[in-house]
Write a structure and sequence with these properties.
By secondary structure, this protein is mainly alpha-helical. 64% of the residues lie in helices and 6% in strands. The strands form four sheets. It has a two-stranded antiparallel sheet with strand order 1-2. It has a two-stranded antiparallel sheet with strand order 3-4.
Length: 534
């Protein structure tokens, strides 16, 4: 096998795994900041418990995200040195901004937030979580700026065969980046919302199952108290408010992904028409949106594709905003690509044995076609389930049904699947380019790079395979650690994040509490601050 294939598998596995944590970090970070703000303004005990519980989950995910994210940059030098040389003069700016402006702010203020409980003034402590969560979003912006330049290069000039950045403002305000950023952020909030909704449903179901909460003749909840730390009336408020907040976040976020996704689709039609055609398995020009197409597995030959069910006009709307403009199909686009960029890879030493081989301009259509549909399906199902759940729980509790509870918990995975499918579609849909050409005549059409030229020339198949096995194994171990910690603390509930609830001094009511209240003893040896941090 070609080292290129193994290098692509390695980058794909590690990147998709890392990106599972990124949207949850973004979605939970701002949610925790809002929860603490509500506690600061109202003094209600249930908002404090929500802040500490979800803050713990946020921290676990954040730490694992940092650990797995570090590998991404090392991979550039390990397996993609030619790519690093080509894009280095452009990527340096956004990646440096991500590290120095975003990640440093994020990690610094997150540390202050962790260890600032009872030590910083309440308003200052509240400001730290806001700064940390906003910096998390800023970090995502700079990374997406770098990625979007690969999708649509702007603000550069070719000098000695390499792009040199001449306009940093153009790079930072790339229309592809602005649309992709808003789409990714709304997708992240969909992940966070589904997590809140599913966990809230699970704990409300547990309270019903344990007989703590009951319902009256009209179906309205009667909260009660049970055995165990924190299993009181306030806990009901914690999980019900968590469910309601999460459900509305998920619904609104999906609406945001639909709007930004539509804008992204129209840009994709202009900038990467082959990706649009492959996403629809559209072999010929037309206006039809494919609801279902089938073909030979692994084939990129349009003669092997059969459209089972199509809806006229919808594809034109996705691409142009009308229902009549034809969208070019694969058969019309391939000759155009071949005329502009050639039919075979250049006879250049950097291509190695791949030099002179035919260029396959059609991406793997199973990936683009189903990736696009899975993204929409998973996102839509999650939002629909949350909306129905909000209606079902309007009387203050959840049904005493285990299948419904399991569905709500498993529903947490749906927006994760949507985010992963969307990114796989975005990245694999631009193949065979690692840096896609800018088709705009006023742009920089000569700036592009084939994926075949990006791999490190000095690495062998065995070396890349070894690193793939090692990194995948390490990531598998980290996955076990991540899931185990999340399951442990989620099942443990609020008491797992607030050991002080087990003490007799824990508050018994939701009244007369505030950001300056004492929530349990702090003897200086095993304080709730350090217990929360660890």
């Amino acid at each position: 096998m070609d080292p290129l294939d193994i290098a692509r598998w390695q980058f794909g596995i590690t990147t998709v795994y890392h990106f599972l944590m990124v949207p949850l970090t973004i979605g939970l970070g701002l949610s925790v900041a809002v929860m603490q703000t509500l506690w600061h303004r109202t003094g209600a005990e249930h908002y404090l418990r929500m802040t500490k519980f979800w803050g713990k989950i946020f921290l676990i995910n954040f730490i694992m995200g940092v650990a797995t994210g570090l590998v991404q940059e090392f991979q550039f030098g390990l397996a993609w040195s030619e790519y690093s040389r080509f894009v280095g003069d452009v990527f340096g700016a956004p990646l440096a901004m991500e590290a120095l402006l975003a990640f440093f702010v994020e990690s610094t203020f997150l540390g202050l937030w962790i260890f600032g409980w009872k030590r910083l003034p309440p308003r200052i402590h509240l400001a730290t979580i806001w700064l940390a969560s906003l910096a998390t979003i800023g970090s995502a912006y700079f990374i997406i700026v770098a990625n979007s330049w690969m999708q649509h290069p702007v603000g550069v000039q070719m000098i000695d065969g390499r792009p040199h950045m001449t306009d940093v403002v153009a790079v930072l305000t790339n229309n592809t980046a602005l649309v992709a950023f808003t789409h990714a952020i709304t997708g992240a909030f969909a992940v966070g919302g589904a997590m809140l909704f599913g966990v809230g449903w699970y704990h409300l179901w547990r309270r019903r199952k344990d007989g703590i909460d009951t319902v009256d003749a009209k179906g309205y909840v009667i909260p009660g108290s049970g055995k165990g730390a924190g299993r009181d009336v306030i806990e009901h408020k914690v999980w019900f408010r968590t469910l309601v907040i999460g459900g509305w976040i998920a619904v609104v976020a999906f609406a945001g992904t639909a709007i930004t996704g539509d804008a992204q689709g129209k840009l994709m039609f202009q900038q990467q028409p082959m990706k649009m055609a492959a996403a629809e398995a559209a072999c010929h020009s037309g206006t039809q949106f494919s609801v279902l197409s089938v073909g030979q597995l692994g084939s990129r030959d349009c003669s092997k594709m059969v459209a089972v069910f199509e809806v006229p006009g919808v594809l034109s709307f996705l691409a142009n905003g009308d229902f009549t403009t034809p969208v070019k199909g694969v058969n019309e686009l391939v000759p155009e690509y071949q005329q502009k960029y050639g039919t075979t890879l250049p006879n250049d030493p950097k291509y190695g044995a791949r030099a002179g081989q035919p260029i396959q301009y059609v991406p793997v259509m199973e990936v683009t076609y189903w990736g696009f549909r899975l993204m929409i399906t998973f996102g839509g199902l999650s939002a629909l389930a949350c909306f129905i759940g909000l209606i079902i729980t309007r009387k203050g509790t959840v049904p005493l049904s285990r299948p419904l509870m399991v569905s709500a918990v498993l529903g947490i995975l749906a927006p994760f699947g949507a985010n992963s499918a969307g990114w796989i579609f975005t990245e694999m849909g631009r193949q065979p380019f690692v840096v896609a050409p800018n088709p705009d005549f006023s742009g920089v059409d000569q700036v592009f790079m084939y994926t075949a030229a990006a791999v490190s020339p000095g690495v062998s198949f065995g070396e890349v395979l070894f690193s793939l096995i090692v990194l995948t194994s390490v990531y598998a171990v980290l996955a076990v650690v991540e899931v185990s910690l999340l399951v442990k603390f989620i099942r443990g509930g609020v008491a797992a994040a607030m050991p002080e609830l087990a003490h007799a001094g824990a508050p018994a009511s939701d009244d007369d509490e505030g950001p300056n209240a004492d929530h349990g003893p702090d003897d200086g040896k095993d304080s709730d601050v350090l217990a929360f941090a660890y």
